[in-house]
Write a structure and sequence with these properties.
Distance between the termini: 58 Å
Order of helices and strands: HHEHHEHEHEHEHEHEEHHHEHEEEH
Number of strands: 12
Shape: globular
Radius of gyration: 21 Å
Length: 394
Amino acid sequence: MKEFPQSEALQRLPEQFFAKLVNKVMKVKEQHDDVINLGQGNPDQPTFKPIVDQLKKAADNPNYHKYPPFAGYPFLKEAVADYYKREYNVDVDPRTEVAVLAGTKTGLVEISQCLLNAGDTVLVPDPGYPDYWSGIALAGANMHEMPLKQENDFHPDFSELSDNTLHNAKLMFLNYPNNPTGAVATHALFEEAINLGDKHDICIVHDFAYGAIGFDGKKPISFLQIPGAKNVGVEMLTLSKTYNMAGWRVGFVVGNPSVIKAIELIQDHYYCSLFGGIQEAAAFALKSDQSNVTQLVNMYESRRKALVDGAQKIGWNVEAPKGSFFAWFPVPEGYKSETFADLVLEKARVVVAPGVGFGKYGEGYVRIGLLSEEKILQEAMERIGKLQLFSSSL
């Protein structure tokens, strides 16, 4: 059988670190049926029932059985604009400032192909979401890492960027509430980014996937709330986390019209938008009562407490995340993130994600998902405690 060589673009793609983690987990699961998986980023709760019911009704609409408009139905874009006005008091033109995405993962890869040429520089958070790297690799561009350090509240220090780097940069990715660190943004952070984007013609892309999930009574801020944001960038919003709709694959990019136009152009060549029934259900989700979202965030906050209390009980010196549904915990002294993750998988049968999988500055940490019931999170910490890795372990 002939074996055809892959394109140079595919060969540039980064190694999928988490595929290796999945293989390790599968091997342990073959021997044990009590593995606790806290390494995932997949919501464990079902989509809210009213949204599902809306899809069921919409599926009977014969107009949706035809090709949808390439750019998506106007009613969905209007729902996005309504959402931004209601939640953030941001005015959005649904005709020119909203693009519909088949999940923001798609948009985060596409935007590099839309705006970058080979050899261009992209500023990326480190640690950060690995799919930023994928789009950059496909475009043949170069990454410049912006370290996210605990002493800076896991915000990039823009003063560390040289004039040459800023001159060559065409794109900057930001993500708050942050995956994997659980940090949240400040107005000052976004203001500084906007000033840099304006001065150096850098497009700012804010990944707002966890925008609804903030703790301690504090609502995460939208990048678009800051004056000048739409002049220099866009924000990507997904329904996956806010409404437990990860499998529905629906999201949006909102902001600068020239970027919206570019995204819609490339999508015209990739596919013909989303099934109309999903678009109707998505619009319903955005415009309906948000009490289910409030309850969901409260559930994650209760899980956060259970996890952090359990970790501190075994002597693990950790800090609670301020947003997202992830915790970012330091590994014990003497361990690397991957060796620690391997140990707790093999000896405690608990899956955590090694921080190095999110970039070199993720070394020394593991990411833990708040995506299991409180009693399971507590049991996971008790199992790890029995390994006697911390000074006050059980």
